[in-house]
Design brief:
The protein has a single domain (33-267), classed as Lipoprotein localisation LolA/LolB/LppX (outer membrane lipoprotein receptor (LolB), chain A). It is 17% helix and 48% strand. The protein has four helices and 13 strands. It has a 13-stranded antiparallel sheet with strand order 6-5-4-3-2-1-13-12-11-10-9-8-7. A hairpin with a 4-residue loop joins strand 10 and strand 11. It is globular. The N and C termini lie far apart (68 Å). InterPro entries: TP_0789-like. Residues 76-267 form the Uncharacterized protein TP-0789 domain.
């Protein structure tokens, strides 16, 4: 067979398979897309250095540095974070048991060294700001897919990558109160099923929160956001901003399940 003919056949087959993939993606419901987002590999036994830059409406900055750990326990995820700098937050620890199913609320504890006390975060407090940032305590866990209703709005390119825009609304008042959001619009990258942007309409205060995974890297085969920016606006004005950087991300580390405990919170690193 002549080379040009073989090349034509290969091109036609590739186009045919590509068409099948596009057709399959085009036929997915918003709920199915979010199930794929939830099922994507996010790594296990992770350690990382993190930095949180808090910027007020006048442009004044505060920088906090942390050490983070996470481990899967079945479908649940255990997370532990220690604040290392500056001195006024050093020793503060944050522990989360992120449950895969929505049958029980995620458990969260905050250790405050000046009080030498572990405080359990109540469900009624999870919509409040985490350590003065634009992230709430609820934002620090994965959303349970079944707790939201979804609607596929459209597709658009973000940074040269095709994304689905999906509207998410809480299934009931309890979920709305926990997150503090009436509605979210999520931008899901089609090639890796990862949320790269989010817009959240707050239930109270007329505020809107914007989140964007600015830098995404593949580390040990896992797509990881190494820089996330968030901002809170009211009436179109920026009230506060947070820049969240993650460095030295490593997976497959030797971390014991017993490490993720309130005793370790009190003990520190």
């Amino acid at each position: 067979m002549k080379k040009w003919a073989m090349s034509l056949i290969v091109t036609m087959v590739a186009a045919w398979f590509g068409g099948l993939i596009c057709s399959a993606e085009a036929g997915m419901t918003a709920r199915q897309i979010m199930e794929m987002v939830d099922a994507r590999d996010d790594g296990d036994n992770m350690t990382a250095d993190q930095e949180m830059i808090l910027i007020d409406k006048n442009g004044h900055k505060r920088i906090r540095r942390m050490k983070a750990f996470s481990k899967d326990k079945g479908k649940d995820t255990l997370k532990l974070m220690f604040f290392m700098e500056p001195a006024d937050v050093r020793g503060t620890g944050f522990l989360t048991y992120d449950y895969y199913l929505g049958e029980r609320d995620d458990d969260q504890w905050l250790y405050l060294p000046e009080l030498k006390k572990v405080k359990r975060i109540a469900s009624s407090d999870k919509s409040s700001a985490f350590m003065g940032s634009d992230f709430s305590y609820a934002d620090m866990t994965k959303r349970v897919v079944a707790e939201w209703n979804y609607k596929l709005l459209k597709t658009m390119d973000i940074g040269g990558k095709s994304c689905w825009l999906i509207e998410a609304t809480p299934v009931n008042d309890e979920v709305e109160d926990r997150y503090g959001y009436e509605k979210s619009v999520l931008f899901v990258r089609q090639d890796i099923f990862m949320v790269v942007r989010g817009v959240n309409w707050c239930k109270e205060g007329g505020e809107i929160k914007y989140l964007e995974n600015v830098t995404i890297e593949q580390i040990d085969g896992v797509w990881v956001s190494t820089q996330t920016k968030a901002k809170t606006t009211r009436n179109g004005r920026v009230m506060h901003q947070t820049i969240f950087n993650q460095r030295n991300t490593r997976f497959g580390q030797d971390i014991k399940e017993e490490f993720f405990s309130t005793r370790q919170l009190e003990k520190g690193l």
